[in-house]
Specification:
By secondary structure, the chain is of the alpha/beta class. It has two domains: about 10-110 and about 295-310, Rossmann fold (3-Layer(aba) Sandwich), CATH 3.40.50.2000; about 110-290, 3-Layer(aba) Sandwich (Rossmann fold). Helices cover about 40% and strands about 15% of the residues. The protein has helices at about 10-20, 60-75, 85-95, 115-120, 160-165, 180-190, 205-210, 225-235, 245-250, 265-275, 275-290, 295-310, and strands at about 25-30, 45-50, 80, 100-105, 150, 175, 195-200, 215-220, 240, 255-260. The strands form two sheets. It has a six-stranded parallel beta sheet with strand order 7-6-5-8-9-10, sandwiched between helices. α5 packs across α10 (about 265-275).
Length: about 325
């Protein structure tokens, strides 16, 4: 669309632009849900990834965003797809949508994360020694050579601050993807966490981060899907994630599930996994089986089946 969705006027201009399109199949896959208001109802599919914006704003702003980005689009769509049963339930909870027109089609994992035999073997490195504390890393842009836990995201729902407390005194390295807040930096120093941080990286660089990690640590408190769990499986790495939806459904028995609101639970999950090479290998093998259901070809087939319902298979 010609304008970034910032303010009511950009939304209006985008709708005017879209109103010229009358023929064909329309599928809105980004967060511009309101675009459906200018498109034909009987030939338009809306994908809703999550409803995180409803948990971010309050008051009048939240009510207005809900009306424009959820209530009206859901009413107008012929079909709605979403990426997890949790997201589907949230849509039903917040709207009067007919559940029959909502289909759960999960996110695919990028094949770029597929690991080679050589990278898979790196998970055979020795377990960490506990509980020797390490001083804070003096160069936050450089990863350590000790056992590395990859932590993705620094927004509040990613749960970094509670995780920092959980890792106090453990001989490991926390590799963080995302810009740190001042509070997070202060906590990392206070709890003497050996860490490094990087952000604004390319997909290829992100792949290398997965391959350099010993464990993927993803104890998020809110996700629409939880793609890092599947990316970790694809990269051949053991994963620790939350025992809440949708992560527990995505991971199944192929990951260590912890209570994301409990410092003790996160800590116990990390210690137990990093202390058992056998458990690490079991999870890697289980992850290989789980990730088969998230390959692009399989997910594309699910979308093609839906497009056929509207008379478009290509």
């Amino acid at each position: 669309m010609p304008f970034t969705s910032r303010g009511i006027f950009s939304i209006i201009f985008n709708l005017l632009y879209l109103s010229r399109f009358k023929k064909g199949l329309f599928h809105i896959t980004g967060d511009v849900h309101y675009a459906i208001l200018a498109l034909p109802k009987d030939r338009t599919i809306l994908t809703i990834h999550d409803l995180v914006f409803l948990h971010t704003y309050t008051g009048l702003r939240r009510a207005l965003l809900k009306w424009i980005f959820l209530d009206l689009p859901v009413r107008k769509a012929k079909y709605i797809t979403t990426i997890s049963e949790k997201s589907k339930q949230e849509i039903l909870d917040y709207t009067n949508c007919d559940p029959k027109k909502i289909l759960v089609i999960p996110n695919p994992v990028d094949p770029i994360f597929a690991t080679s035999t050589s990278s898979t073997s790196s998970t055979s490195s020795t377990s960490i020694n506990l509980p020797q504390p390490l001083s804070n890393n003096l160069n936050p842009s450089t990863p350590s050579t000790t056992s590395t836990l990859l932590f993705l995201g620094t927004k509040p729902n990613k749960n970094l601050e509670l995780t920092i407390a959980a890792l106090f005194g453990l001989d490991l390295h926390l590799r963080i993807i995302g810009e740190l807040t001042r509070k997070q930096e202060e906590m990392l120093a206070k709890f003497k966490i050996n860490y490094s941080v990087v952000f604004s990286i390319s997909p290829e660089q992100l792949v290398e981060e997965y391959r350099n990690a010993k464990v993927i640590l993803f104890p998020s408190t809110y996700e629409g899907f939880g793609l890092p769990v599947i990316e970790g499986f694809q990269a051949g790495r053991p994963v620790i994630t939350s025992n809440i939806s949708p992560m527990k459904e995505v991971a199944g028995d192929a990951a260590v599930l912890v209570d994301p609101y409990s410092v003790a639970s996160i800590r116990e999950g990390v210690i137990n996994l990093l202390s058992s090479h056998q458990r690490q290998m079991e999870l890697v093998e289980a992850g290989k089986e789980k990730v088969a259901n998230y390959q692009p070809g399989f997910i594309a087939g699910l979308y093609q089946e839906l497009w056929r319902k509207l008379g478009h298979a290509d």
